[in-house]
Write a structure and sequence with these properties.
By secondary structure, the protein is α+β, with helices and mostly antiparallel strands. Helices cover 69% and strands 7% of the residues. The chain has helices spanning 3-14, 18-85, 91-111, 116-142, 150-154, 156-236, 250-304, 306-323, 329-357, 370-380, 382-388, 404-420, 479-489, 525-531, and strands at residues 366-369, 391-394, 399-402, 429-437, 440-447, 494-496, 504-510. Strands 2-4-5-7-6 form a five-stranded mixed β-sheet. A two-stranded antiparallel ribbon has the order 1-3. Helix 6 (156-236) packs parallel to helix 7 (250-304), helix 7 crosses helix 9 (329-357) and helix 12 (404-420) runs antiparallel to helix 13. The longest helix has 81 residues, at 156-236. It is rod-shaped, with a radius of gyration of 60 Å. The two termini are 102 Å apart. Residues 518-535 have low confidence and may be disordered.
Length: 535
Amino acid sequence: MTVDERRSRTRGFSAWTTKRWLRVGTAASLVVLALLGAAGAWVLGRTESISDELVDVRSSALTVAVRLEAAVLNQETGIRGYGLTGIPEFVDPYEQGLTEQKATVAHLTELLKDDPTGLDDLKTVQDAVATWQERVARPVAAASPGSPSPTATHRATEGKAAFDDVRAALSSQQDQLRADLAQVREDLTDTMALRNGVFSAIAVLIVVLTALIFEGLRRGINMPLERLGADARAVTGGDFEHPITPTGPADLRRLSREIDFMRQRLVRELALSEDTRQRLDAQAADLQRSNAELEQFAYVASHDLQEPLRKVSSFTQLLQRRYGGQLDSRADQYIDFAVDGANRMQTLINDLLDFSRVGRLHNAHQSVDLDEVLERTLSALSVGIEEAGAEITHDPLPTLVADPTQLGMLWQNLIGNAVKFRRPGETPKIHITAAPEGELWRFTVTDNGIGIAPEYADKVFVIFQRLHTKDTYTGSGIGLAMCKKIVEFHGGTIQVDPEYRDGARIVFTLAPRPPESPGPPTVPEAVRADAEPAR
């Protein structure tokens, strides 16, 4: 075989897939096993055939031949006794021998039907017996009983010679049958030895075939898969530059190349994502700084607006008290507008201050019993609750690690809204529940008030968003926005239950312990000190 032919054959084998290797290996194994099975079946059949011949033919034929000899001897004994004495009882063994002779001859003929030599020996015996019977046995048996037969005396020498021929024929037959029996036994021994050798060879071949199969699977599948797994683990461990080496059958090599292509693409994506992450980190830092500046600006701006607003409010109220009723009705209306605007601006600024303080000034996390916080909140709202005749019930509430001031503001806004937005002419009924939900606690505040339309379920949590005019319901529109900020600061979420139609149901979750987060932006001490009297 030339070098080119060897290379061509090697390339041909390298293109084989795992499926093809398994098919060829399975087919070859089945062919070998079929040949081994056929050889074993032939040996077993041969052993069974020889064993049957030994037991059913040769041993039986020898036994029947011995019985034939005994039958002939019985005939000779009976004829000789009858010829010498003339006693009729001696004829009985002769007749029994005849009957037995017929039966044994028929049996031997059946047993030796496939043995020409055996049939020839049987015919020789039959001829010798027939000659003896014709020349001696029948004439003596035909003599009258009571006295010795003259025929027996006259033919004694002839009868002896004839029966010697019978003996010789019987002996020759039995010797031949014994020789055949010994030959069959020898064949059986040889066949059994062959059978043992064949089955030993079958066992050895099966072991070798099994070893070849396992070695082929190890080299063709296990080792390439282990190599692929090791390369994949190296990549998974962070060595993204580690190449995936293709080995094994064609399909496993193709899989390795596809995984390596995926690795290369992952490297490119990681490089891109790293660049994106760096930009996002920079943007997040800028956004955090901007938010901190905005919150500080809102805090400072609302604080700085307090003093001029107090002057405007004070002078408009003084103007109303001193000149109310002295001017015309339009002037009184303008004064009322100014006073009302100043008061609402004062309320908005105070609410904005409270909103900006969430997570800034009130950030004292400690173990808080929500039942106690709720009781304090109900006590603070007792006047409004009694005026509305509200009925407030609650389930047992848990103890959490949280800021007690913020949770008090949360209950105050939720319960205050439930009391404020009640149905006219109907007693407000408010119920609070708490239940564990995974790693969080799930709370609901349910009332029978005017409810919140589903299309406004998100809008109500936006700061300064109102669903009603100030003439219908008072307020600045910051309450639920503050609730959302408090809940999110404590690792939870808040929403309106859109499925509840008999009022409003606010659902929110709180973590047993607030999440770790960077500290809130600080407020200059001077600003904080100036802000305290303005609350």
